[in-house]
Every structure is written in structure tokens, then in C-alpha cells.
Amino acid sequence: MRSVPPCARVFIACVAVGAAACAAPALTPRTQWPAVALLALLYAWCEQAPRFRIAGRRAPEGMGTFFPVLLAGAFLLPPAAAALVAVPGGLLAHAEQRPQWVRRVWRAAQLALSAWAAAAVQAPLGGRGAVAAADFPYVLVPAGAAVVAFCCVLSYLDSGILAATRGLPPVPFRRRGGAPVPAAAWRGLLLRSLAPVGVHGLAGLMMAVLWRSPYGPLAALLVLLPMYVSCWAFAQYHHEQTAHRATIRALVQAVDIKDEYTRGHSERVGQASMMIARELGMDDERVEVLRFAGILHDVGKLGVPTRLLRKDGPLTPEERRVIELHPEYGHEMVRGIGFLGEARTAILHHHERLDGSGYPYGLVGSQIPECARVVAVADAFDAMTSTRSYRRARPVAVAVEELERCAGAHFDPQMVRALVRALERHGWHPAVTADESSRDGTVPAARRAPVRADNAS
Length: 457
Known about the structure:
The protein is mainly α. The chain folds into two domains: about 230 residues, no CATH class; about 200 residues, Hypothetical protein af1432 (Orthogonal Bundle). The chain is built from 19 helices and two strands. Strands 1-2 form a two-stranded antiparallel ribbon. A hairpin with a 2-residue loop joins strand 1 and strand 2. The two termini are about 55 Å apart.
């Protein structure tokens, strides 16, 4: 237990003793051992199932958290017996970090106490009788109370162990003097867990009602299959989204390292693109694509010589032509990344101008894809409101005036108006980078230099 802090060891020991005390009354012949054993084995299998492959693919990490069986036990059994259901699955749960046996004991004790609390809360409300009689909708009242109790205990224990590992008292309030303890963490965990555990609670309630019906436990087991497949699919989707974000983050970090003077520019252009897209009423999926487009619009700079990106002073015509290849480089780099969708087109065309003076192809007006017109405005806006190696930042109001002046010639007026409305509604609060002098990108007037919107990138 060397890797577990002393405070955490004490907290785990207290929780384990408490769980044992709660489950001990069930260790009698009068307990419904067939039901306890079947539910315990079923939950243990649910904890192990993510290690198996479905359709040739292994379930993502974190898929073992599957509560319908535990909640069904809380609806069907007395509190002590419901606590026993969680023990085998918790002790067999996968633990990546060492000491594994301590983490498994912690998991078993935590779930046992949560299941005990759920059963104890719903029992005085007549929950078990309502389940046996399938008394809808009354049965939803004790079931809902049980779910809330389950979430409260689970969240408190999670926040408590987090506090204990940091040497704080694992109690959900503030110490004297105002020093924060797990209160905020407990509330956050509780609010995030209510919805997913509530869905698991409905599945557990369906299991419990079918279990007490003439069809028996076998019918109750059928509830698990669609529920588990749905959870697996959602976890797989979440895993893929995490991989997408990691891919984008790696590309952006590579650009930031190469071009240190525009560090943070990509994220800010993504933020501005998202603001414009929302103001235009685009759906959430397309807004996300525009955010990706803004974040990755300059990824082609990885193909440009670093000396040109970091050069102080004006570029020669030959050097400018080399830099103007970066949209094509970027398009080639992301061509095989399917989830980017039309963001790839925006990367290629974000330097096109309505009057045909842009690059790489000199497209005119509506020939320029809509997504590229959005990113073009976002890119120019952030370029003007952030400090570069060759000039200081402009205030937001001055940058907006420049965009409006160039609207119709360089930028799509609709996109400019959308950005202006979004700024009026929400303001501009980008992440501050090391080389910026203020939150909104403004600097003293004496330190500003004139900037042309068409060259601000």
C-alpha cells in the first residue's frame, strides 16, 4: 500500500468496515440466497464482460461500470442482501494501478454501501411491495428515491477518497477559514451521475418487476442485453471521440511548436468559427466541424520552412509564395482523416477572397465553400486581435471595423455580421497566450502598428 497515502488507507479501511457491518446481517439462512447468488454472479459477469470482444472489437475502458443489476438487487432484496450483491463483482473488477487488491476492496466496499443505501431508502416507501405488485406509477417514487440515494453515497465516497489522497478531511463541507474540501467535488460528481444512473435505475426497475412476474428471473435477464449493447456502443463512440480530439491536439501542438509566434491562434480561430456557426443557426454537428476547421486551418504550416515562419520583417515575393502553399499542404495532411468532413475543404480554401484575390486557386464569390468563408473571417479577426512577431495587436472594435470595411471584397458580409452579433452577445474571451498583453488582445495605442486584414495570418 506504499502508493496509497495514509489518509486514503484510513478512509478505505473505514469504508470497508462500514460495508462489512452493513452486509453482515444478511449472513443468515433466512436470506434469499438463490436470488443473491444469481444477481452477484450476474454483476460479476458484467464487470468482466468488457474484457471480451463484441463483433471483433474490445469494449472501451470504463465500460465495466454497469449498475442495473445492483439497482435491481436494491429493489428486490433487503439492504444487507443488496450490499452482498456488489461484493464479488467489486473484488473481481479490473484495476490497472497498484496495489490492485486495495483498489478492488475499495470498489467492492463503495458499491456495497451504495447498494445498501438504495435499498434502505426505498424499503420504508414500500418499494419492494410495489415492485412485486408491479404498481405503476407508484413504484417510480421509491425507485427514484433509491437512485438518488445510490448516487449520493457513490459521489460522496468518490469525493471522499479524492480528498483523502490529498490529505484533506473526507467530509462534504468547508473547514473553518473557508479552505475548500470535497463539497464542490461531491456536488459536481452527484449532478453528473444522476442522469446516467437514472437510466440504469429504469433498467434495474424493469429487471426487478420482471423478476417478480410469472415469467421469473430468465425474463429479467433479457433486459440486460439491449442495455449492455447500448452502453457498449456509447462507450465506443466516446472512445472514438477521445481519439479524434487527441489527433487534433497533436497536430495543433506540432504547429504551435513550429510557429511559436502564433501559439494559441488555432484554438482561438476554432472558437471564433464556432461562434459564427452558431450565430448562423447551424446544427451542433456542423458547428463541431467548423470548430475542427478553425483549429486545423494552419496545419499546413508544418510543411513550410521554420525560418520563414519566424522571420522578422517583410517577406520576399518568393518567400510569400512558399508560405501561400500551406493551405494545400494542410489539405494533403488531413485528406485521410474522415471525421473532419467539410473541415478539410475549409483548410484548403480559408485564404480565398470574394473578389478572387486570394489563394491557392483564386476562387470568386460563391465558388468559395461556406465553411471556408467562416474560417476566413475568424482567422483574420484573431490575427488582428493578437500580437505577432512583426506587429502588435489591435483592439477588438478596430478589428471589427476592418472586417466590415473589407466585407464584400475580401470577406463574406454574412459571416462578418454573424461574428459581430456573436461578439455583441458574448464578448471575446479567448485563452491568453504568453506573448499577448491583455485578455482582449488590446495594447497601448503607441505600441500598435497598422495591420491589413488580407495579410493578417
